[in-house]
Each structure stands twice: as C-alpha cells, then as structure tokens.
Amino acid sequence: MNEKFKKHWEKVYQKEFGEFSWNQEIPRSSLDFIHSFNLPKTASIIDIGGGDSKLVDCLLEEGFENITVLDISSNALERTQNRLGEKAGKVKWITSDITEFLPETKYDLWHDRATFHFLTQLSQIEKYVNLAAQSVEKFLTIGTFSDNGPDKCSGLEVKQYNEEQLQNTLLKGFEKIKCITEDHITPFNTNQNFLFCSFKKQY
C-alpha cells in the first residue's frame, strides 16, 4: 500500500464530517443514478472511497442488503461504523488502496464519487480500469471533478475529466449510459464542478 497516501488520508479523517469539502448530507446524484439501474435490494454494491460518505446510510435505509464500502483510511471506515451503530454489521468494510484491491466477488454496481480523480498517473488509472472491468457485472457510476472543477483537493493534485475523456478512459469493458455535470457547494460555500457518468458493462 502507498503508505504516504494512506497517512495523508488517515490525517484528513481526523477532522469532523462537516469540515470536508465533499460533504453531502444526502448524495442525491449518486442515488439518482443508482435508482436508474432498477437493481433488486439483493444486488451487490461497492462504494469505492466511500469511507465517510452517507451513501451507505441511504442505501441501508432503502433496504439494500449486500453493500461493501472500501476506503484507504481505516479512520474513515471506523467513523462511519460508529455512526451506523448496529447497522454497520450489515455492511462489509474493506481498508485498501483501490489500485491494490483484490476483490473476492463481483459486483452488480461499482460506485465511486471523488476517488477516481486522485489517480493522476497512467499506471494507476490503468489498474483501476482493469480492476473495474474484471469486477463489475452490470453497472458502474463515477463522479469526478470536471474540467471546470478544482485541480487540487485535500492538498493533493487531481485529474479533471470532460465527458469524452472519461468515456474514452473507460472504453475497456464499459458503454456510457448518461453523463451530467453538477455544482457541489461545499460547507465553506465554495463551488466544485463534478462530472457524473453511468456505464453499462460490455462483454
């Protein structure tokens, strides 16, 4: 595991939930995309980099039964487990760098909001795309900074995408369904422009 990267995120997640620029009380765009797939409540869903996101809270409330949350930060996962209390036992928690993740199963839905854009090296991006292509059975949805979004986040460089670039990056194994852009207003009243795209697995 990239220890420098892990230490960075463990330190970041010592802050309170409301101090994060990406904080969303209700992740509406993510939920809209997930609802559009009409998945059964038994569908296997993985949230990549979802450590302190409230998406898992929403999915549990909707009755989804097979949820995995992956994050490089054990602090982030622990915070969410504490927040969920007994409900945390219904979720599989994985501490891993996404580029080193070795899945033991396949997923009907791979969800990623704000992890992919931290992969700035071609080798990292290729590992991610290959892993997703091998691990996804049905759908993938990614939310990443658009080409009108920030070029840094949490002190780290990020890679911005427009719709064509993201589509071309995921050509191996995936067909684009839909893309939208969205202005995310941070808790500090600044604006981050996101690109959200959904994809269908191609065999």
Strands side by side in the biggest sheet: 3-2-1-4-5-9-8
CATH superfamily: Vaccinia Virus protein VP39
Q: What string gives the helices and strands in order? A: HHEHEHEEHEEEHEE
Number of helices: 6
Rg of Cα set: 16 Å
The chain-level structural class is alpha/beta
Share of β-strand residues: 25-35%
- As for the CATH topology, it is Rossmann fold
Shape, please?
Answer: globular
Strands, count: 9
* CATH class value: Alpha Beta
Give structural notes.
By secondary structure, the protein is an alpha/beta fold. The model has no long low-confidence stretch (mean pLDDT 88). The two termini are 31 Å apart. It has one domain: Vaccinia Virus protein VP39 (Rossmann fold), CATH 3.40.50. It is built from 6 helices and 9 strands.
